[in-house]
Amino acid sequence: MIKKFLKRVFRKSAKTKSVGNAQVIPFELHGVAREQISYGAKKVTDGLQAAGFQAYVVGGAVRDLLLERTPKDFDVATDATPEEVRRVFRRARIIGRRFRLVHVMFGEEVVEVSTFRKMIEAEDAQTDEHGRLLRDNEFGDQEQDAARRDFTANALFYDPTTQEIFDYHRGYADTRAHILRIIGDPLVRYREDPVRMLRAVRLSAKLGIELDAATAAPIAAMKGLLDNVPQARLLDEVLKMLLSGHSVECIQQLRQMNLHHGLLPLLDVILNQPMGEKFVMLALRNTDERLGQGKTVSPAFLFAALLWHEVLAAWKLHQQQGERPVAAMHAAMDEVLAKQKAQLAIPHRHDAVMKEIWLMQQRFEQRSGQRPFRLLEQPRFRAGFDFLLLRCASGEVDDELGLWWDEFQDASAARQTEMLQPEGAGDKKRRRRKPRKKADAPPSGEFPA
Ligand code: ATP
Ligand code: MG
Predict the structure, then answer these.
(1) From the candidates 64, 145, 150, 212, which is the catalytic residue?
(2) I need a surface site. Which of 134, 236, 263, 377 has the fewest CB within 10 A?
(3) For position 232, what pLDDT does the model report?
(4) Is residue 434 very low, low, confident or very high in pLDDT (cuts 50, 70, 90)?
């Protein structure tokens, strides 16, 4: 109470001052205390300042603290060159070729340190034929470093020693007013780097702040520029959206701006099928909740969910053409994965897990003999089961199946035996058609034909 009161009194009397072109906002106004900075970031700014350099916490962390959110990580900006930074710390390494950054390690924490950079002057700028910046790695000063950043809220420098914020673009006022505003001329800035349009969507959705009207206005007309962005970078940004903890808002925002077409080919297809849309939105909501509870989400699970209804459709088609279910499922999975790979560059490393999750879905139907026990032993049972629950929630399969597995996995041995269905109940038809020698022992990762 008293603290709050004092803060208010201080705020009234505190004033910003100007240093060069920067507004310097004192602690009494912004209220971000040195203690809110991570251990590693403080070590880095202290170490660099003791060595005679400037050093500030910068970017997303300052913005998040002003919005009373917990920063994901802390970045530091300095006038020291990467080599100079490395010399100050025992555990530091230079990374990156285009922009050389330094990673300073403190136990688990990695602090990314970047040297002030400037935007290359128009006549020297290397841009492609669409105006996209190909190079922006020239060293500069703090003011220039602020100007090359994307949004005013992302261009604030916090000095943990003096607890002052240096602001060149009215980012403090914007952040306080919950406005995300691009620095400079939006047309130029989006042309330089079209990914900024996606960042605008993601950050405003994630932070629950408004996109400034002039920042939002040109996006609809300029979205075609995203076609020139390398696939890997697009996927990176899409993944950041899906794993932001606010994926539902991100997707809604993307659709509102009509940005999702072409950007997310997998969503293009799926959002047009009523069942697919419900399933995907449930999966995203579920992901957001998990992240909100501090749980992890694997990208493979998310991709598996996004593509499920395509796999289902292809599977059906292959079966209609006379293929047996297992073979049809394998064909369907390969087909869908190949198509997505061409469009969205989903890395191959997720394939195995996605396939395991999909293949397990049929095995959940089999609830007799030894099969349910074998399924329980699958290392990815939990992911498969979570996936099954999503299918139940979306109305694709009966809730009863999810409830059965929910009980079965934790039941006593006696109760499990009691729960088993009579042998052959679920797969009579298929067995009659093609008896297996060992009907009870399907190869792992497959369901019996
Ligand atoms: P997040 O909370 O997702 O990490 P962030 O703003 O910290 O958000 P980063 O990708 O970590 O995002 O980038 C760190 C900082 O680098 C940003 O705050 C911004 O100042 C600058 N930046 C990042 N991407 C761009 C870009 N495309 N154009 C200009 N500046 C950028
Ligand atoms: Mg960041």
Answers:
(1) 150
(2) 377
(3) 79
(4) very low
